[in-house]
Amino acid sequence: VQTENLTLMTDFYQLTMMQGYYQNNLADKKAVFDLFCRVNPMGGGYMICAGIEQAVRYIENLRVSEQDAEYLRSLGVFDPNFLNELKNIRFTGEIYAIPEGSVMFAAEPVLRVKARLIEAQFVETALLNIINHQSLIATKAARVCYAAGQDAVLEFGLRRAQGPDAGIYGARAAIIGGCNATSNCLAGRMFGAAIKGTHGHSWVMAFDDEYTAFKAYADSFKDSLTLLADTYDTLKSGVPNAIKIFKEKREKDELPEHYGIRLDSGDLAYLSKKARKMLDDAGFENATITASGDLDEYLIQTLKLQGAKIDIWGVGTNLITSLDCPSLGGVYKLSAIETSDGDFRPKLKLSDNPDKITTPGVKKIYRFYDKETGKIKADLISLEDETFREDRDLTIFDPKATWRKMPLKANTYTIRDLLEPVILNGKTVFKPKTLSELREYCRAELDSLWDEYKRLINPHILPVDLSLKLFNLKEKLMNA
Amino acid sequence: VQTENLTLMTDFYQLTMMQGYYQNNLADKKAVFDLFCRVNPMGGGYMICAGIEQAVRYIENLRVSEQDAEYLRSLGVFDPNFLNELKNIRFTGEIYAIPEGSVMFAAEPVLRVKARLIEAQFVETALLNIINHQSLIATKAARVCYAAGQDAVLEFGLRRAQGPDAGIYGARAAIIGGCNATSNCLAGRMFGAAIKGTHGHSWVMAFDDEYTAFKAYADSFKDSLTLLADTYDTLKSGVPNAIKIFKEKREKDELPEHYGIRLDSGDLAYLSKKARKMLDDAGFENATITASGDLDEYLIQTLKLQGAKIDIWGVGTNLITSLDCPSLGGVYKLSAIETSDGDFRPKLKLSDNPDKITTPGVKKIYRFYDKETGKIKADLISLEDETFREDRDLTIFDPKATWRKMPLKANTYTIRDLLEPVILNGKTVFKPKTLSELREYCRAELDSLWDEYKRLINPHILPVDLSLKLFNLKEKLMNA
Q: Any idea of the CA torsion for A152, B349, A245, A196, to the nearest 10 degrees?
């Protein structure tokens, strides 16, 4: 939980490089870095941007404390002049970001940082950590919620998260990505997230028998009643005992509006169908069935295909850790550096692996929507000084296969400039949104993608093209 | 970073259950919970215990603030009397733990919590979160270091960790598990972890050419010099430029004791062998080759088998997120509850899945070592009141296959009582160790395991047996 200042949460080599820049009179040169992912994670077709608010707060709080400086001094590798400089460093540059909750794609800069080289280098590691984590979990949550369709999804992963922050900020990201609520009370308090939960196995075990435990629970909570049915035997004991309680409550006209059972083990398709029939036969058609236990988007999709009668999905470990892809491969690469005459010289990192070659220059992202459907047609990365007009014909092309062209007819599309300023001249211009606003925004963003791009496996890939000017610049530098 | 109080970092259902216990006069009943894993992770044969110190600190700080209580009140589901009770809750019970850095196995209680039911329930989620995370990463690190043999392993994962805590406490756990150092400066400051790092690609790109960048770096850092060789072309540019710098420094007698190159992309076996030859041919046999880039225990083992000439392994994403197994499945289960006459009644949770049936009673873990070799022969879980003597013959047996017996001959073995008190009557008796003490202790612990148990894939499984008395108790309750 980030009330401690995270300024020192950086890789050691950032500090050695910073000292080197300082000693080589490069510290004040302005530099531009892009934070981006090289591939969409989980074999999917998109990502959800998350963590922008925490990234901004981190930047605002960037400040080497006396204690930090003392620690660095004790390492014996830093020059006292540099350490003095370090104590005075604040972030004075600018950051543009893709708005939190947006759909985004590989190769697009989520953050574009322009600052003194020494500052831009300082913030690399923490920005990557924050954006990689939250965007990963928001993306996973969007996939899980896509699989669940209209059903509610609850985030239950705190106990298996990779430490406190992973649980807390993971819950935040999961709700941005579409989850209805979390079990994590601290995320509730910190972000206003909706929180949910009823009781666990220990409740049932703390009483002499299951019926007594259910009855005590029902008597304690009048507004909402979900009984965990699998402590002893789901169909022989748990569901019948739950039905007994529901009947007693119905007789006294005390059955709450929201009531039902939760299944946490066994075969969820089989058990939910059997339990549904038992509940319906007893006249409890409104009772909900919540399921939990090793769920993820793939299992939810399969269970639904098999006709599982599950209304609410409690998703824990596999969401909060993003089991099949536990990291987003975000990188932070230099794309331009100030020249002695104050211009920016575009920079490119070569690699034997073509996917690892960076795209040079100070860049923007334009998103093209079909005017009629409102769906995204393509994204285009351009240089900062390029503009495009909706009333002109435009043909864009795939930079990896230049014969793959997409013609855009004048007045059939709309254009959106995706990067927004969040920090200018070191001052925050970012306007935070509430978590429920972010969730609503994200839902609308996902609606702007055709289903084909949201398929869990082997989706259609949205074109992320380069403008002709940027393509030519990259070609020139690659062949230089 | 846990300076904020984590008391509210709990699943909502813990609070509803607590209110239920309070209203049903069960809150003050003493209960015993075991925190344990059902399987060893990553297909391996053991785990490393980590996170005990943070778990103890969390317990010490357990305290519902006015702000927390106000938030809970705002939810409208809690009774004011319960909220008053909650504000006064402190942890007054006892916790026994496996010492941090120990080798441990599935089914063994890492923590045994005995406390008022309301307190024991309160701390479940956070204890699981902390122990699951750090033990996972310590275990992964032990595997990576096992694969690396005598070579140094550096933890480089901060930028891909699942949030700040995952990076910070993950670095701590990685060092307990055997890593030599981390790149994470905050982990250095907080825990005294050794920190390492030199420069990245952006350093090279900030200069007009690679040679100039290397030279500037070498001039800035006199004590240690590792040059990143893959920004443009490893064998045609990076290694020759590094050799040029090393020669210049050697001529001036300024070559530091620790110097070398780092490879971060391309085929590490091929490139390291070629680079080694180039360095050796130039007379730099002492130059080290550090490798990084998507490494894990499996890749390290394969690269070594193929004769890669790598001296130092920088392991990032796949260690800090435990790629192939990003969570430890630790659970927290009620094993006994106080009766009206003050005794403890053992409790058992049944399940259709035999591996999910819990082991009842207040338990201890005894570890049996071979007297001659000092290696672990077996662990035995017994009831708390059972003792064993080293001068007696003893036969233990596998509870899942009772015909599999292990005879232990008197005076050929030593016995260790593995669980140690960390909190008694709400007071901390835990004695923290430094990170380097924990790392040394863990190394000795790993030495007490034969190699067969440490094989990365399909290892031999160490017996974790139940005492006859405990076995009979479990059988009785299962058939009750």
A: -30
Q: Are residues B11 and B18 in contact, defined by beta-carbon separation less than 8 angstroms?
A: no
DSSP annotation of A41 reads G
What span, in angstroms and rounded, lies between the C-alpha atoms of B122 and A183? 14
Q: Minimal CA–CA distance to A97: which of A422, A429, A404? A: A422
Per the CB < 8 Å rule, is A128 touching B160?
A: yes
Q: Do B337 and A231 touch (CB under 8 A)?
A: no
Beta bridge partners of B368: B378, B415
How far A204 CA lies from chain B's nearest CA (Å)? Answer: 10
C-alpha to C-alpha distance for A372 and B302, rounded to whole angstroms? 55
Query: pLDDT value at position A78?
Result: 94
**Cβ–Cβ gap A170/B160 under 8 Å:** no
Confidence at B4, pLDDT banded by 50, 70, 90:
low
CA B248/CA B232 separation, integer angstroms: 22
Which ipTM did the prediction report?
0.97
The bridge status of strand B344-346 relative to strand B331-338 is antiparallel
Of A218-227, A236-245, A269-278, which range is least confident? A218-227
CA–CA gap between residue B300 and residue B269 (Å, rounded): 10
Q: How is residue B273 written in tokens?
A: 């062998």
> Could you count the other beta carbons within 10 Å of the beta carbon of residue B373?
10
Closest CA to A167 of A189, A184, A181, A142: A184
In angstroms, the separation between the Cα of residue A125 and the nearest Cα of chain B is 5
Q: Tell me the C-alpha to C-alpha distance, in Å, between residue A39 and each of A298, B202, B251.
A: 20, 21, 46
Q: Is the pLDDT of residue A351 over 90?
A: no
d(CA B288, CA B276) in angstroms, rounded, equals: 9
Q: Tell me the C-alpha to C-alpha distance, in Å, between residue A251 and each of A338, B198, B308.
A: 78, 73, 75
**What residue spans of B149-294 are helical by DSSP H?**
164-176, 185-191, 201-205, 210-220, 239-251, 268-281
Q: How many CA atoms lie within 13 A of B255 on its CB side?
A: 18
B20, B323, B347 ranked by CB distance to A205: nearest: B347
Q: Is the predicted pLDDT of residue B182 greater than 70, yes or no?
A: yes
List phi, psi (to 5°) of B355. Answer: -70, -15
Furthest-apart CA pair in chain B: how many Å?
84
Q: Which residues of A touch B137 (CB under 8 A)?
A: 162
State the residue for tokens 């089914």.
Answer: B107
Residue whose C-alpha is closest to residue A137's, from A196, A51, A39: A51
pTM value is 0.97
B147 within 8 A of B27, measured Cβ to Cβ = no
Q: Are B349 and B357 in contact (CB under 8 A)?
A: yes
Short-list A103, A168, A100, A106, CA closest to A142: A103
CA distance B333 to chain A (A): 7
Pairwise CB contact (< 8 Å): A337 & B233: no
Task: Answer whether B172's CB lies under 8 Å from B193's CB.
Answer: yes
CA quadruple B285, B287, B292, B297: dihedral sign: positive
